[in-house]
């Protein structure tokens, strides 16, 4: 049966119309979180890239604004970042600080490789209108064909801007006093990490390990493009290490590949710039799709969604420093309590769940760590999405094999698992469900699985199962989630 919904998430961002891929230029300025994004305003598949624009004050409720950047004589507007130029290092501003976007100009060349060069645009009115810098492009490379997705941040210790940018299958680290003149500091990535595809959309930022500022580590995110040889499609890895303004030195743990998300649909994500120091969070959002099938997903009128906003932290678990993701706390304001049980038997929980019909919600469940539990969500006569913990394998999983429409790609179906590291004697699983997605945060954000699903409209059931008929949930909460009304 064909769904009559358009699969638009109710608390996830999607453009009102047409195509979206990567988040770009995420920056906080004057009370607004900006999201720019790779956008094709004239089609529902990838095409001439523009920067679309939306803002939010609460990380849940979005206001879409007119297209911010359109292709010009240097080509399409590919991915990049935005910063607040607080000290007017660029000289673009008069009395008040404003926004500078640093992005890739992608120029097609007949019968040859396209050219990718870095350019600037600036805005004096909170991103509502932009001027392209007349000196564009500001950075090119003599040999890299893939040279794109600059992420820029201010480095206080060296008092310079740092740019991390994807260069084929490595990243390059440049520095600049004014965002216009860039000097290559170092290159990182040869012989380390995953090289299953071209490297894209890198990010680099410091985090205090377990909140202890004396134990700061740098985190590098690197997205890896889809290669037909790998049925996982596009995905994101991360490294931890040290950075001195020039060189990134990876920790030992980074020598094995560390996946950022164990689902299929969290790509090209980066962190927000200029979150005020008194807030101090490192906030992240990714594109909730996969290049393997992004152009074929069964939505109508628009295509593409972002993940929920997430907070990133570094935490020591079993002597290993891990990158942990948690839903941004603003999501709590989107809740309406539906069910709240403590020390409830699985029979009692099952009876309650059987009465519910829900599409957009959060479910939190906690139970003894040696017990396996499986939820069936968005279930109906033909569909169900299975999410559970297999205690014998010590893993959390999403199985979307029967989740709904899947015929648009042969590798869409499947089960995706992530290893768990115990936090205490309990399993803790937090799941966000929306019209076409599930996001699972297990063990308090240690293992994350983000997956798209396309169930029938009527598939709203929830049920739970365990081999242990005496299983007790220490707690089980369900909240319906809706956009926050001011
Ligand atoms: C990542 C990416 C980027 C590029 C953009 C083009 O998804 O391939 O490397 O800048 O998308 O839309």
Topology of this protein?
Layout: E1 18-29, E2 32-40, E3 50-56, E4 62-69, E5 76-84, E6 99-107, E7 115-123, E8 131-132, E9 147-155, E10 160-167, E11 170-176, E12 183-188, E13 199-209, E14 212-224, E15 235-243, E16 248-250, E17 267-271, E18 282-287, E19 302-303, E20 310-317, E21 320-327, E22 335-345, H1 346-354, E23 361-368, E24 373-379, E25 385-390, E26 395-399, E27 415-419, E28 426-434, E29 437-442, E30 447-452, E31 461-465, E32 472-481
Parallel strand pairs: 1-19
Antiparallel strand pairs: 1-2, 2-3, 3-4, 5-6, 6-7, 7-8, 9-10, 10-11, 11-12, 13-14, 14-15, 15-16, 17-18, 18-20, 20-21, 22-32, 23-28, 23-32, 24-25, 24-31, 25-26, 26-27, 28-29, 29-30
Bound molecules: beta-D-fructofuranose (FRU).
Keywords:
486 residues, mainly beta, Tachylectin-2, Chain A, Jelly Rolls, six-stranded antiparallel beta sheet, five-stranded mixed beta sheet, 2% helix, globular, binds beta-D-fructofuranose, Glyco_hydro_32, sucrose alpha-glucosidase activity, glycosidase, Glyco_hydro_32_AS, Glycoside hydrolase
* Ions and ligands: beta-D-fructofuranose
What is the rounded distance between the termini? Answer: 38 Å
Look at the helices and sheets and give the structural class: mainly beta
Oligomeric form: single chain
InterPro entries: ConA-like_dom_sf, Glyco_hydro_32, Glyco_hydro_32_AS, Glyco_hydro_32_C, Glyco_hydro_32_N, Glyco_hydro_beta-prop_sf
Protein name: Glycoside hydrolase
Domain Glycosyl hydrolase family 32 N-terminal: 12-327
Family: Belongs to the glycosyl hydrolase 32 family.
């Amino acid at each position: 049966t064909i769904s009559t919904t358009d699969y638009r998430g109710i608390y996830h961002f999607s453009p009102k119309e047409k195509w979206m891929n990567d988040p770009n230029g995420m920056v906080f300025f004057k009370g607004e979180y900006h999201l720019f994004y790779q956008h094709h305003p004239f089609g529902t598949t990838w095409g001439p890239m523009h920067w679309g624009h939306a803002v939010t004050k609460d990380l849940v409720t979005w206001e879409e604004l007119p297209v911010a950047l359109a292709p010009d004589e240097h080509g399409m507007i590919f991915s990049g970042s935005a910063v607040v130029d607080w000290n007017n290092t660029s000289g673009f501003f008069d009395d008040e600080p404003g926004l500078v976007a640093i992005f890739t100009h992608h120029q097609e060349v007949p019968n040859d490789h396209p050219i990718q060069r870095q350019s600037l645009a600036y805005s004096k009115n909170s991103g509502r209108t932009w001027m392209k810098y007349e000196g564009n492009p500001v950075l090119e490379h003599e040999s890299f064909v893939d040279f794109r997705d600059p992420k820029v941040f201010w480095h206080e210790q060296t008092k310079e801007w740092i740019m991390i940018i994807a260069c084929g299958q490595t990243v390059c680290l440049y520095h600049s006093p004014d965002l216009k003149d860039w000097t290559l500091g170092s290159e990182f990535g040869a012989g380390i990490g995953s090289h299953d595809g071209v490297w894209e959309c890198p990010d680099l930022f410091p985090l205090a390990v377990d909140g202890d500022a004396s134990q700061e580590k740098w985190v590098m995110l690197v997205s890896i493009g889809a290669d037909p040889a790998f049925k996982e499609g596009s995905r994101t890895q991360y490294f931890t290490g040290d950075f001195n303004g020039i060189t990134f030195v990876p920790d030992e743990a980074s020598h094995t590949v560390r996946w950022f998300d164990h689902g299929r649909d969290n790509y090209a994500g980066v962190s927000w710039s200029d979150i005020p120091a008194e807030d101090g969070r490192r906030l992240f959002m990714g594109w909730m799709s996969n290049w393997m099938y992004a152009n074929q997903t069964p939505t109508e009128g628009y295509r593409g969604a972002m993940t929920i906003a997430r907070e990133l932290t570094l935490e020591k678990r079993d002597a290993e420093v891990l990158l942990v993701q948690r839903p941004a706390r603003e999501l709590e304001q989107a809740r309406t309590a539906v069910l709240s049980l403590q020390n409830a038997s699985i029979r009692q929980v099952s009876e309650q769940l059987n009465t519910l019909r829900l599409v957009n919600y959060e479910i939190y469940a906690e139970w003894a760590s040696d017990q396996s539990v499986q939820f069936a969500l968005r279930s109906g006569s033909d569909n169900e999405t299975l999410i559970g913990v297999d205690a014998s394998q010590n893993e959390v999983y999403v199985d979307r094999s029967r989740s709904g429409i899947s015929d648009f790609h042969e590798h869409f179906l499947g089960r995706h698992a992530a290893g768990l590291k115990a936090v205490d004697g309990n399993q803790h699983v937090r799941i966000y469900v929306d019209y076409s997605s599930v996001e699972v945060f297990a063990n308090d954000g240690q293992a994350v699985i983000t997956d798209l699903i396309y169930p029938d409209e009527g598939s709203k059931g929830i049920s739970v199962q365990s081999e242990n008929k005496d299983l007790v949930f220490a707690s089980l909460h369900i909240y319906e989630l809706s956009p926050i009304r001011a």
